[in-house]
Amino acid sequence: MHTDDRIERAREVYQRAVFGGDASALADAERGLDAVDADTALARGLILHARFQSGSNDPGSSPSEDPAQLPLFERALGLYQALGDPRGEAEALFWIGCLHQFIRRDNETAVPYLERSCRLAAQAGDKPTWSEALRHLGIVAHTAGRLDEARELLQESCQLRRDIGAMAGVASNMIGLAYIAAAQDRRADALATLDEAYAIASTHGANAIVGHIEQARTRI
Hints:
82% of the residues lie in helices and 0% in strands. The chain has helices at 3-20, 26-56, 69-83, 86-103, 107-124, 127-143, 147-163, 167-183, 187-203, 207-219.
């Protein structure tokens, strides 16, 4: 049921309860609104995350964490758990982990959230969230110098993204794979991977990814 449908249903249930004396659907309507609240909290957190990431891409800028972001993700998580929605729970867990990893640079705190997200998303067949969790666990492994593990995780994430047609995400992952190849003294593989990533990103209008690819070329 879509957001508008849930809100309209709540209005209809109100009418039946107040004017018709039938209060039997009130609890169900409240659960529907809890789902709306969860989706809204998660979406608001994503907007704040996008603002932070956009700021971090600007030369000379030093973006700061919006203090509202983590509480929004945590609220979404609590609501999804209460609703028994594993897909929503997996997504909220991922974004909490991503915040700790990407914004706070705290992998120790991030990893348990990312691992729980990965397990739940896999169980639910939620390939978008599953691929995200794998990607960020791959980044953790890369940072820790576990290059083979990082490569496997990013390759698995790439395959999931290919499965759902998220080709900009594939190109993004390939940048990480190129850095891993360079760290393993496979520079030719690294440059070939960047060439393929550039072709994918250009074809799919992923201009921000193209910029990251060009930056990677100067570093490899």
